[in-house]
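This section describes the prediction task in plain terms. A model, or a person checking by hand, is given the sequence of a single protein chain and must write out its three-dimensional structure as a string of C-alpha cells. No templates, partner chains or ligands are provided. The sample shown here is typical of the held-out split.
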Amino acid sequence: MDRNLADCRIRFIEGEEGMPSRQLIRRRISPYEDSTVLTDPLTGLGNLRRFIDKINRLISERADDPAPFAIGVADLDGFKPINDLFGRGAGDAILQQVAMRLRAAMEENATVTRIGADEFAFLLPMVFSEGTAAERAQMLIEILSAPYHVGQRTARLSASAGCSLFYSEEDTAELLLSKAETALYQAKRSGRGTVMVYTREMEDAAKRATHIEQALRRAVAAGEVEPHFQPIVDLSSRQVVGFETLARWTDRDLGEVAPAVFIPIAEERGVIGQLSQLMLRKAAQAARDWPKELFLSFNLSPSQLVDQNTAQHILNILEQTSFDPRRLEIEITENGLMSDPASAKRILQDLRRRGIRVSLDDFGTGQSSLGRLREFAFDKLKIDRTFVSSILDDRPSEHIIRAILAMCEGLGMEVVAEGIEEEAQAERLVQFGCSGGQGHLFGRPRNAHHTLSYLHESVYPSKYAG
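The expected answer:
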C-alpha cells in the first residue's frame, strides 16, 4: 500500500462533455438533510453542501472572466478493512488525521471538504491547467499514504484521486463534481495510488462501461453467460487431471465480450457475486458427467473474499448440484487477499473443512508476501504465465521458476505452470520438476458440450466406449 511519490501514476484520458451516467458514479452524499448544516462534525471540515456552495461562488466571481480552476475528489484505498480491523473509533481517528493533513497541505484560498465516508473533495482556485492539477493531487495522495497512528499501532493506506477543470460558464458545480468522480472511478480501476484528470474521451469509456454493465446484468439474470473449461495436465504423463472454469459471454447486441472487459466491470459494479454463482452452478452440473478423478477449478474474485456469505453460497450450490466438494478447487489471487486477509482466511477455512482445495493463482505478480503462503496453507500454487512465456530465453524467469518450485517442494505444495504454449516450455518445466501444466499446448477453453466430447474421444475413449 505504501507508495513513493515517483510510483504514483498520472493518467489523462479524454472524454466527451456532459454529465456521466449516475450508475457510473459512486455518489458522494452528505449525511445531512438540513441545508443550513455545512460542517462535518467529525473532522471539522466543510461538507458536500459547503463544497458545492464554494464552487458556485467561485463560478459567479469569474463570470465576466472565466479563468480556469480545478476541483478534485480523493478516496482512501482500503479504508473499510482498516476500519473493520481496528474498529470504528480507530477509523474515525484516521479520518481526523486525513483531514488535518489535507487542511495543512492546502494553499491560500484553497478548500478541502469531507463529502463521503472516506472521500474528500478539494477546490484549487489558482490551478489553471490539467498538469498542475495532477501534480497537486499527486502531492495530496502521497501525503495521505504516510502511516497513521492508531493508539499504540500504526496503519497504512493509500488514496486515489480524480480531478476536473472549470473552463466556461457551461461547467456547473454539479457537472464539475461529476467529471471529477468519473476521473476518480477510472483512477480506482487503474490501481491504488493513482491520479486521473478528466479531459476528452473519458465520457465515452464511462458510457460504454455502463452499457456493458446493463447488458451483463440482463445476461446473468437470463443465464446467458457460459462456463468454458481449459485442461490442466500432469506434465510428465500429459494426462488430463482437471479443468479450470473460465467465463465466456456473447451478447446479442455487443457480440463477443472479452473476459478482460466484463469481469472487471462485474467486480466494480457489484455483479460478480451473481455471475460467480451462475458460473459455479453451470460448471458443477457439467463436471458431474466427467470421470470422478477429474477436479474442477474455479476462481473467486477479491470482493467475494470479503463477503462472509461466499462460503455458504458455494456449499449450497454444490449440494444443489450434487457435486462432491472434494472435486472442487478454489483459485484466488495474491491481490485478492490484500483487501481483508482475516475475512479471506475465514472463508477459505470454511471451504477447506468441507474438503475443498485452495490454490494461489498468478503467483509472483501480486502484492502479497511469502508469509501468506505459510498463513493460508495453500494446497497448490500456479506460476503466472509471464514467467513461463520467457522461460526459454530469459535467465531471471528461469531462476524465479526454479526458486518457486524449490519453495513449494519444501512447503509440500503442488505446482501448476500456466500459459504453456510450446513443447520446449513444457519439457523445460519437467526438467525443473514442475508437476502440473496448463495452456494452449494442451487445449484451449471449450464449452461444456465440447469438453465432454473431448473426454469421450481423446482422454478416456475406452471408458466411454460402448
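For orientation: Confidence is low (pLDDT under 50) at residues 1-33.
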